[in-house]
C-alpha cells in the first residue's frame, strides 16, 4: 500500500536543508511506529520518495512525499485521514501534514510528473511600478538569457520558455510580491533565476511555493488539491 502526503514547510524550519528534512521525516515515522516497507540489503531504509526539492530558505504549502507500507504489518482498515493528526506532532514546528491520500500503483513518481510550480516571490530593491515595468518587458521579450553553472562550466540559457505566467500581486513586507508559474521540465527555473533575469539588482526576499502541477492533455492537476492553499490571485496565461 502506498500513500501520498501533502505538507507545509513554513517559519524557521525553512532554513533546514532538503536532506535534513528527510531525516526529520524518518525520525517522525519511528516515533509514531508507522508500519513502513523497507528496502533490502545491508542498510535497509524506509521506502519513501520525496517530490521536487525545495531550495533552502524557501517556504511552501505544497510539498509532497510518497510512502509505502509493509502489507504484512498494515491493518486492512488503515485510516489515511488519521495520519495528519498522528504525524504532525512528531515533526518539528513549521512542518505540518495537510492531507493524505492512497495511491494507485500506476501513479508516476512526483519527480517525473510535476511540470510547473507556482511561487510567490518577494522582490526587494524596487518599487511596484518599476517591477511592473520589468515584468511587462520580460513577458514581451523573445528571450531571457542568464548564466548558469553546469559541472563547473558557465553556460548561457534562455529561461523565457520556462516562465508560464508572471504578475505583480501587491506590496510585500519589505518589497514587491510577484506570482510566478515556472516550469520544472526540461530544466527547473528557480525564483532566484527569474529575479536575476528581470533585473540584476533585485534582491530575493520571502519566497513561498504554493502549488505544484502535472500537465496532461492540456489540463493541469495537483498531486493533492487543497482548497485552503489555493492562491487568491488569478494569473493571465502567457505563451
Task: Please provide a brief summary of the model.
With 239 residues, the chain is an alpha+beta fold. 18% of the residues lie in helices and 36% in strands.
Major pleated sheet: 9 strands, mixed
> What's the gyration radius in Å?
19 Å
Number of strands: 11
Q: What value does the average pLDDT take?
A: 87
Return the CATH class of the largest domain: Alpha Beta
Describe this structure in words.
With 239 residues, the chain is of the alpha+beta class. The chain folds into two domains: 110 residues, 2-Layer Sandwich (Alpha-Beta Plaits); 116 residues, Alpha-Beta Plaits, CATH 3.30.70. 18% of the residues lie in helices and 36% in strands. The strands form two sheets. Strands 1, 2, 3, 4, 5, 8, 9, 10 and 11 form a nine-stranded mixed beta sheet that branches. It has a two-stranded antiparallel ribbon with strand order 6-7. Strand 6 and strand 7 form a beta hairpin. The radius of gyration is 19 Å and the shape is elongated. The N and C termini lie far apart (40 Å). The C terminus is likely disordered.
